[in-house]
User: Fold these one by one.
Assistant:
Number 1:
Amino acid sequence: MSLVATPVRNGRAAATSATARAAGGASTRRAHLCVQLGGAPAPRASGDRPAVATRVQADRLDWADAETRHAAMTDVSRGLALGTLGVAIFAMTLPMTRLAVGDANDPQLTPAFVTAGRAGVAGLLSVLYLLALRAPRPPQRQAPALAISALGTVVGFPLFLSLALRQVDAMHAAVITGVLPLATATVAALSLRQRPSAGFWGCAVGGCALVLAFAAWKGSGALVPADGWLLLAVLSAAVGYVAGARVSTVMPAPQVICWVLVGSLPLTLPAMLWLWPQAPVRGTAWLGFGYAAVFSMWLGFFAWYRGLVLGGVVRVSQVQLLQPFLALLFAVPVLGERLDTTTVLFSLAVIGVVFVGRRMPVARAA
């Protein structure tokens, strides 16, 4: 009897000891879990399960995830706001440049002075910005891309635009330059040896046909020299933007435009002083020049690039579609130009073609 009872008692004692150790281990794990969650371990109630703590942890993770999503949405909202601000600044460039150069019957500042002066002023501001930031110099291998960007955005686009705006109104220029995003995408595809789809090329051809048709309509059935200047401005800006985008892969985009302007100072600053107007001009012309120098050539890029970073390139870049239409609207109060139905319809058609074209597939080079 005793020989049988002893193993049974020893077995029960072992089982009891194992249960106690398991319970102790569970309590220890539960305490560690509570500490990780940031609270003190509560006494374990009868019938409690570790799943309760797991649910608490999941609830807190859900809360943290909700906070992360809220922060992301806040960044997107700020990005869209800054992107819209940048586009509005760029849209105002057309009427303000027209204000600076005047028209053929009442010329003000010369296109050459506006081109050199706006880059010279923005270049001096860029020097102060880069010094305050203690920004490193761009790599030497990026010098060719920076030079191409300067030729396109510092010299080509503002010069050709100023020459055109001496002959045509800002609304005319807004419709023609509305194809710029599509032109930039085309230059990027060709320079990167990508393979755009037939739909993309169809939109590119359609956009060119629209702006040429509008130019011919405005010119009573024929193109005028200003249309050639505007197309050269679009091409210059597209080439300059693509070259600058390549450098932006190795350094912050706002610094890229600043280095482009600083690198151009040996040319733009002496040219600005040499071309300084001798005859008096209206105060509104200087106002237009100041806007083009400080906002169009400098601050607009800060708002635009910051918006792209916060809100995402794909989402925020769509705001650029508003630029031609905003330029049309700004020309009414700034210049007193009349907004007619045909101009609005052509502008909306160009915006629609650009919108579709930017969604057409472009295959990477093999």
Number 2:
Amino acid sequence: MTTPRPQGELSVERMCALAGVSRAGYYRYFQASAPRQEETGARDAIQRIALENRHYGYRRIAVQLLREGLLVNHKRVLGIMRQDNLLCLRKRPFVPLTTMSRRVVPNLARGLIVSDVDQLWVADITYVRLLEEFIYLAVVLDAFSRRVIGWALDDHLQASLAVAALKMALEARRPQPGSLIHHSDRGIQYACTDYTAVLAQHDIQPSMSRVGNPYDNAKAESFMKTLKQEEIDGRDYRDIDEARRHIGDFIEQTYNRQRLHSALGYRPPVEFEANLPSHGAAAQQPRATLTATCP
């Protein structure tokens, strides 16, 4: 009778003898079966991540696999995704024109290199299509961490929409006076007295893009593109309440806390900010002024 022993104490030779097989046969079987098991595990993980994150490309999936302890080359991930038809939806949306202000302030963000959060905020407004109408989303992002720190959704393009998003950002961050630049496009909502008064009250320097140059506000434009591709374009919202619920969940949970950002070393914004040292104040610059009539 054989005394039970832990498997780790048995040599390959002893296990083969107990099983009645040759060592050569064991190694032939191992070399044939191990790659199949590894391939199955990798394919299963890739399919799971792709289905949970419908708009992740092969590079983000490869990084997510690494975060889960699986080292899979990104080219291999691409090959498996092609074989399994795990494609990402990409849709170019129709963009209606918005009102532009003729009154602008200098572009203080152009060429600016930020080194911490709350040095440069970027703001933008986009539309969301419902079944029978448009609604509008205003956002404010921290340019350093890409985190959405303020947002508001409503059925109008009045200045109060942008002001609501700005006030949410101010309540969440409470930036030091004189340390922050606020950059936006030339929308009248950002140029009017109601909005600029809030900026002045918190000693925030306004900045605006050049005429017809979306690259000056690229970080905000990039977020809007991501939002459209990964949330809005895949849904048909019944009404503004449903849109607010789904878009808010995407912003607060998916984008800020889960989505891997290539510019942040493939980390979510909340995680990126949590690993930053103590925040320093940005250098102060002369403030621009403007007045305009709010819509």
Number 3:
Amino acid sequence: MLAGCRRMFDHVGGHKTLQDMNRFHRANTLTGGSTIPSLVRVARSIDQRTLLVAVFAVTLALVTIDFITWVELDVAAIFGLPLLLVGPTRSRRLLWILTALLTIATFTAYAVQIPAGAFSLKETFFVNRVLDVLELLLIAALLHIRMIAADKSDSQARVIARQNEKLEAAKISRRLVEVQESERRTLANALHDLVGQKLTALNINLNIVKSESACAMTAQSGTRLDDSLKIVEETIESIRDVMAELRPAVLDDYGLTAALRWYAEQFSKRTGVATTVIEQGPGRLPVAAEEAMFRIVQEALANVAKYARATHATVTLDVTAQASCLTIADNGFGFDSTVPQQPARDRGWGLMIMRERAAAVGAELKVESAPGQGTRIIVTLRNRAP
């Protein structure tokens, strides 16, 4: 068979023709001829499991043909087909395993079919096989680099997609906060203009009736009228408290520090938890930031009253040219902040709401706590460069 093959190649130009054919196939392989992209596009459209089966089937068939016929075509061009089919799987381990098997098969086919005593390092078919193996390794190396580049590209695309999702979520959260604050402002104004004014008018009318009917009024009627006036006054106070919770006017008029001092005073009276406010650094923050930080303080102090069993709380606002830092600290029981806290039906939502409010204005919220050591909630808002 070997003699017949050699006579055939000598008939068409001998070893020179064979080397020319090899150079043609190598050039086509290395320059990425039109055949390779077509194979890759077809391979990508096939199911991965089917692709792996096809890879091994094609490999086995080509190796078998090489063993049986030993037709000396460019082994790198033929055996490169399974490598190209492996490419879309992006399995670098499978790529090099298949490359090693094809390399072994290439030399095994030559060793089996070469006549005894005919081997020589300068023998043409052996040299061609060595060059074919080098080309196989080069193809595998190029595919390896391509797989790494594709993996990096996909990883970067996933990172960009996650960043875009976070940006969209932040925009939605910011918009929801703006809508919520607008609704709070509208409701507070409606309570003031409708309910508050009518209660005030009712209070005035009752006082007029009391003064005009003082002489003719019985003691029982006077007592009932006094009770009615007291109820009206308490209702007016309750409406004012609700309005202040919805939208404290002091926040719009005097800024965050004044609003925090007012709220701390109200909180201390209501709960008995001594609360102090410390301001470090003058200047007002953007409206959205002041609103978010005020709501965070409200939620944090509500958690202090509900769960911390604290006797003292401190709210510190530190404003510098680089950043604004808000800290709410208490001397309560504390908790293990390293353990993820999942919101339950009746608790655990406050911290999540605070995080969302901080994220909506581009701030970072950090919780520091330990059992028996109280809790610190730190909100940091980096000032944007002008």
